[in-house]
UniProtKB/TrEMBL annotation:
InterPro entries: Cation/H_exchanger_TM (IPR006153), Na+/solute_symporter_sf (IPR038770). Keywords: Antiport, Cell membrane, Ion transport, Membrane, Transmembrane, Transmembrane helix, Transport. This is Sodium/hydrogen exchanger family protein. GO terms for biological process: proton transmembrane transport. It is found in: Cell membrane. PANTHER family: NA(+)/H(+) ANTIPORTER 1, NA(+)_H(+) ANTIPORTER 2-RELATED. Residues 14-390 form the Cation/H+ exchanger transmembrane domain. The chain crosses the membrane at residues 6-28, 35-55, 61-81, 93-116, 122-147, 159-179, 191-214, 226-243, 249-267, 279-295, 301-326, 338-359, 371-390. It is a multi-pass membrane protein. GO terms for cellular component: plasma membrane. GO terms for molecular function: antiporter activity. The keyword Membrane applies.
Length: 409
């Protein structure tokens, strides 16, 4: 029996790697973000398709694997960010991750409450999760849609920061559901704890990695390889160290360490950047294909027309409102503001965290809430599926119609 399970696992890994490479090839050939192909492939080999991947094959380790994968993805995203580019768009970025995030959070929660009849707990939990766009979906879009640097940086930084804060906020809200004796100040304290720990751990790990790479002499023939592996180890260690203390603090630590290291002068920095990009493509394939394979269409269909109405309101009302309020007077053209409004697909963080919460709502008592679990999972996955297919899938065409590609400048 153990041999059979091992063979299943090996076949699963081989299939995901093969499909991931195929998705990247198709994305490059047809100039379409790779996440679109990854999701379609995941659905095709999951229980709703060929049935090659089932929850039994994936096992209980999924949440851990997804967590480490997301840490690597976020580390690579922040490592690529340039401080000067962020400084140029500081006003747009700061508004998008504050004012825009609040509009998205409250607007989504109210929409879910009114259209789906969710409890306030579940509505705000969904609202928190769906604030995040995320580097897992934004980076593949920007790889094939060459928009102006300030616009691209705004989308990248918004995705990374909101991924982190949305995950932490969702964890705090979930804990609030299970510990109703918390005073309002207790929610803020839980949030600050996780952010602070992640930042501290990220700084420490970045300092150690910098010292090893910049101050410890390495043989010239092995130095580039060592630099790549030390950087990858730093991403995983930062995540694991912080996450072992507080859930989701690991994502903050990975983001912090990546940004600090990317801002420093490191030996073999370009080699590290390229290596992390290649690793990210593989883990991105694993996460998207696996989670898409575990989609249950019954949960999506159960939401009915109301579910599609929620997605429509998020795409054509709440996202544009958040963007237009956040980008007043920041130097974006009306077409660029429309492009940012129409490109807000949700990614891995909402999917993985929603899956974790749904399992707990189904199995733990308290806060056992089967109906809430299905509503949470169905709504989050429906929004991810539709926004990725429509917004990511047609991002290049949208940019062309609006005339915001770099060639226009």
């Amino acid at each position: 029996m153990s041999i059979h399970v091992s063979l299943d696992a090996v076949a699963l890994i081989a299939a995901i790697v093969g499909l991931g490479v195929t998705a990247q090839f198709l994305a490059a050939k047809y100039r379409v973000p790779s996440v679109l192909f990854l999701i379609l492939m995941g659905v095709a080999i999951g229980p709703e398709g060929l049935g090659l991947i089932t929850p039994a094959v994936v096992g209980d380790a999924l949440s851990t694997i997804v967590g480490v994968s997301v840490a690597i993805i976020i580390f690579e995203g922040t490592f690529r960010l340039e401080y000067e580019a962020i400084w140029k768009t500081s006003k747009a970025v700061s508004r998008m991750i504050t004012v825009g995030a609040v509009i998205a959070f409250v607007g989504t929660a109210l929409t879910v409450r009114l259209l789906l009849g969710a409890s306030w707990d579940i509505a705000f939990l969904i609202g928190a999760l769906l604030v995040a766009t995320g580097p897992t979906v934004i980076a593949p879009i920007l790889a094939v849609v060459p928009v102006r640097e300030e616009v691209a940086t705004t989308l990248e930084v918004e995705g990374i920061v909101n991924d982190v804060t949305a995950a932490v906020l969702a964890v705090v809200l979930f804990k609030a559901m299970t510990a109703r004796q918390l005073a309002p100040g207790g929610y803020v304290w839980l949030f600050v704890q996780r952010l602070a720990l992640g930042v501290v751990v990220g700084f420490v790990v970045a300092g150690v990695v910098w010292y090893l790479l910049a101050q410890v002499e390495q043989p010239s023939e092995t130095a580039p390889q060592t630099a790549r592996l030390v950087a990858l180890a730093g991403a995983v260690i930062a995540f694991a160290a912080a996450d072992s203390v507080f859930s989701e603090a690991g994502i903050v630590a990975a983001a912090t360490s990546g940004f600090i290291l990317g801002s420093l002068e490191l030996p073999h920095q370009e080699a590290i950047r390229q290596f992390m990009r290649d690793v990210t493509l593989l883990v991105l394939a694993f996460v998207f294909i696996t989670l898409a394979a575990l989609l249950e269409f019954a949960e999506l269909l159960a939401l009915g027309v109301a579910g599609l109405a929620v997605v429509a309101v998020l795409m054509v009302v709440i996202r544009p409102l958040a963007v237009f309020v956040s980008t007043v007077g920041v130097g974006f053209t009306p077409s660029e503001r429309l492009f940012v409004s129409f490109v807000g697909p949700r990614g891995i963080i909402p999917a993985s965290v929603a899956t974790l919460f749904a399992v707990r709502l189904l199995t733990e008592a308290p806060p056992s809430d089967p109906s809430g679990a299905h509503l949470l999972l169905g709504t989050v996955f429906l929004v991810i599926l539709v926004t990725v297919v429509v917004e990511a899938g047609f991002a290049r065409q949208i940019a062309g119609v609006l005339g915001v590609t770099e060639a226009e400048y």
